[in-house]
Give the backbone structure.
Amino acid sequence: MSASTSYCAYCVTPFSARRADALYCTDAHRAAATRERVAARARHAEVVAALLRQRDARLLAEVEADAAEILRAPTMSVA
């Protein structure tokens, strides 16, 4: 099997790949790309959590406003 020229998915430099599915020119670049993906997923999870907290706060405020309106409404007497 001959080595083919590939481009590193991390640094985009050409390298001689021994396997057709090789993505990185070095193990260090593979590890760095993995760390960056993990960090990006963590940031995404933080953003999603913040958005959910905002939505929950808005929904809670709406429910509290509705409850206050219901409590302020005059009661109807049954005669």
About this structure: Strands lie at 4-7, 14-17.
